[in-house]
Specification:
It contains 10 helices and 18 strands. It is an alpha/beta fold and 421 residues long. Helix 8 crosses helix 9.
């Protein structure tokens, strides 16, 4: 397996949800700001889909990013901009690698798409159809063997034996039909896959197809007319993977489940860091947080502690696991200003010391002030970008990039509201 490493230097989004076209440079710490409905969350979603697509649409916690986003947005058809044939999300790593994700709803509307993408889809359809064909043959052969084992328990002239013989004969005819008409059946299966496809995603790295996901209304087999629920058929064309990412969107917190999987040395490191930041934090053991107030200790389940402490845990843990790219929606949510300041302080330290990248959204000017102030203290303002998103009169999304120095000067000199016009 080959693993791509690096952080993002640029992202380009075309026809994904409400975004027609954006091309944005990225640094180590990137904060998207702007009014509601300007595309902040959409950019996080786009990057989450692209980066996780290299790892079966899973982040390092194991969350299914594709399921999370499609369920939240009402289905895969809402990921492609209205009246457009497909969405395209691409990014460039600082190592020079180019990553691309295509999202299609209808193969009949794929005019103008890269021929490499269409070739990958056709090959994926071939592989899935062949897999379905072989799976059905195996099912028939197993059923025949099972019935043959049962038939031995009945007398020659018993009604039950005759019924089993008829069933064996029926399955035998079906097997013969499959074997005789292989090409015709495979063609029929491919046609059904195309007709019943809900959406399709294609991932590329450096202009080569890595994998194809087909989301289809799958039927059990060719002779069976009932439908199963919608499911994903994944076809891998490469063993290329991307280093794990961390995603936090829609106010969901699932990272705490990972703490108990850490080696004891790393748990100790995490505990010691939290003790320096939170005076009353004492220890963590098996899903429980231990607080110490003077001589009194309190033991509290981790899933009921405050958002500030959970936010710090979510900041520290991915770096311990070697996660280099973190996508976080509104990190300041429900956070006391004291925790907000500590969060900004530790975030800039991680970005500087461990080459970790953060792509975030925020509505909090206070969080921006803490972040920029800590970046200035650590001589990191050149690694910070504030991206202001806004809507033009025609409804399209546009942006302006402020460097850390520009944003800091605006905050200090005129206290400008960087959340956009």
């Amino acid at each position: 397996m080959v693993v791509l490493n690096g952080v993002l230097s640029e992202v380009e989004i075309s026809d994904f949800r409400a975004i027609a076209s954006l091309r944005i440079p990225l640094t180590k710490i990137n904060v998207f700001v702007g009014r509601n409905n300007t595309g902040k969350t959409t950019i996080i979603e786009a990057l989450a889909l692209l980066l996780s697509s290299f790892n079966g649409y899973r982040d390092f916690v194991g969350n299914s990013i594709l399921d999370l986003i499609t369920q939240y947005r009402g289905g895969p058809r809402y990921l492609v901009r209205m009246n457009r044939p497909y969405a395209k999300i691409s990014a460039t790593l600082d190592t020079g690698s180019k990553l691309v994700l295509y999202i299609l709803e209808d193969l009949g509307r794929s005019k103008g798409i890269d021929p490499i993408v269409m070739k990958g889809i056709e090959q994926a359809l071939d592989q899935v159809a062949d897999s379905m064909y072989r799976e059905r043959i195996s099912e028939i052969e197993r059923e025949i063997e099972r019935l043959k084992d049962r038939i031995e328990h009945y007398p020659e002239d018993s009604p039950r034996r005759k019924d089993l013989e008829e069933r064996i004969s029926k399955y035998g005819r079906e097997l013969d039909e499959y074997l005789r008409n292989r090409d015709e059946i495979l063609s029929s299966l491919r046609s059904r896959l195309r007709d019943e496809m809900v959406s399709c995603t294609v991932t590329l790295a450096n202009n080569a197809v890595v994998n194809v996901h087909l989301l289809v209304k799958q039927r059990r087999h060719l002779m069976f007319e009932g439908e199963k629920e919608v499911e994903v058929k994944q076809v891998e064309f490469s063993d290329l993977r991307l280093q794990p990412i961390y995603v936090r969107m829609y106010r969901e917190r699932t990272l705490i489940e990972k703490l108990d999987d850490l080696p004891i040395e790393q748990v100790i490191e995490l505990v010691e860091r939290l003790r320096t930041l939170i005076p009353y934090f004492y220890d963590y053991r098996n899903g429980m947080i231990i607080f110490k107030f003077d001589e009194r200790k309190e033991i509290v389940p981790i899933n009921v502690v405050g958002d500030g402490l959970l936010a710090l845990l979510e900041l520290f843990t991915p770096s311990i696991y070697g996660v280099a790219i973190n996508l976080i929606e509104e990190p300041e949510l429900h956070m006391h200003p004291g925790f907000m300041e500590k969060y900004a302080q530790e975030l800039t330290k991680f970005a500087k010391e461990h080459n970790i990248q953060y792509v975030m959204t925020t509505h909090s000017l206070e969080f921006l002030e803490y972040l920029l102030d800590n970046a200035r203290q650590q001589d990191m303002l050149n690694e910070v970008s504030i991206i202001r998103l806004y809507r033009l009169p025609d409804g399209e999304v546009d942006y302006e990039v402020l460097s850390g120095e520009e944003a800091y000067d605006e905050l200090e000199d005129i206290k400008g509201d960087l959340r956009g016009p």
